[in-house]
Amino acid sequence: MELSNVVVLLILGFAGVSCMKPTLINECKKGTPNAERCVLAVAERMRPKIAKGEFPEGFTVPRLDPAFIERLEVTGDPNFIAVFENVTVSGLKAFHVDKLTVHTSDQQISLVTKLDYIHLKGKYTMKSNLKMLPPVDGAGYATLELTNVKVLVRLHYFLIGKKGAKTVRFLPTEFKVMFDGDANFALTNALRGKPDQVTNEAINKMPHEILNKTKPAVQRHLSETFTTIVNHLMEDAERERK
Ligand SMILES: *[C@@H]1O[C@H](CO)[C@@H](O)[C@H](O)[C@H]1NC(C)=O
Ligand SMILES: *[C@@H]1O[C@H](CO)[C@@H](O)[C@H](O)[C@H]1NC(C)=O
């Protein structure tokens, strides 16, 4: 399975957690007033390493920038069907965490990560018939430039294992992507027989039409990948310790 993904950036908080080892997690749990600072400090220390994919030997976490999405399918709406394949995502290493909150009472961590600029490039097929857009029925290459993307994640964390060998697992309870900035699509061959420029100009007048339709699939994909990566990281961290 191809784990590399946009969301690796979000692990920063949790890669932090994984490297804190259970003792520190317990510290963060007990020392309620300093929980945020404790997690953030480790996350910040880990950030450059996560961005470059520099993990200790034995870790199998993929590189963050550029990241890779093998396949993303958007279905569920007969008026909008799309498949994106072999998508390269760059710009992720500039992520920053705007907010991180540890709710010790119900063992939840929430964080908001912001990306100032992302560039995506890959293959696409799309069939769309949306009210506000010219119809799209094409296949070719697509690029997308986004500014100001926010990702909000809320995870439940829990300790597993026996006394003295406890470890942490995460379960996402909320995962939201917000496209707060500009978006610019460039599709080739989006409408057979029409010049690319005409279709793209129309799409880019209302890029949020397509973004909105794509969002649930993106969130689902990211949430799954994210969970896998985070829990995978935890396993690696445990193996390291042994
Ligand atoms: C995606 O990349 C893989 C590996 O390079 C390749 O086998 C596959 O044909 C590509 N898919 C498309 C749609 O280009
Ligand atoms: C996006 O979708 C939501 C519902 O999922 C809707 O409330 C909102 O108006 C949509 N925005 C655009 C620009 O289509």
TrEMBL record:
GO cellular component, one term: extracellular space
Signal peptide: 1-19
Highest taxon, organism lineage: Eukaryota
Gene3D superfamilies for the chain: Haemolymph juvenile hormone binding protein (3.15.10.30)
Pfam families in UniProt: JHBP (PF06585)
Record keywords: Signal
Name the UniProt record assigns to this protein: Hemolymph juvenile hormone binding protein
Species of provenance: Culex quinquefasciatus (Southern house mosquito)
Gene from which this protein is expressed: 6031298
